[in-house]
Amino acid sequence: MWWSDNFLLRCDYDSKYLEGVPKFYREMLDYFKELKDLYQNHEVQNTILFNNKNILIGGKPVFYREWFSKGIISIEQLLNETANS
Question: What 3-state DSSP class applies to 34?
């Protein structure tokens, strides 16, 4: 599943896009995100592609199951060794 292995916790999510998640858990995710943002190293290439509030298509975060199943989850994995697409 896309949410297993703490995947969601590594995403740059916005809880308003997490459909079907009870309010209590959305609030906990918001608190965790606030704490994480205080200490996170912001290297763009390590940015998680999915459930990312900054990568929207049609106003919603994207999730491509096929990419995820092939291990593609970060921008870094879409770049070649010279950091180009």
Answer: helix
Contacts of residue 3, Cβ cutoff 8 Å, sequence gap at least 6:
none
Cα 67 to Cα 23, 53, 64, 70, 78: the distances in Å are 29, 18, 5, 5, 10
Which residue type, as a one-letter code, is found at position 70?
K
Residue 25 identity (one-letter amino acid): Y
pTM of the model: 0.51
Poorest-pLDDT segment among 25-29, 35-39, 40-44, 48-52: 40-44
Q: Which of 10, 84, 9, 14 is nearest to 55 (CA)?
A: 14
Contact criterion met (CB below 8 Å) for 63 and 2 = yes
Which residue(s) pair with 74 in the sheet? 48
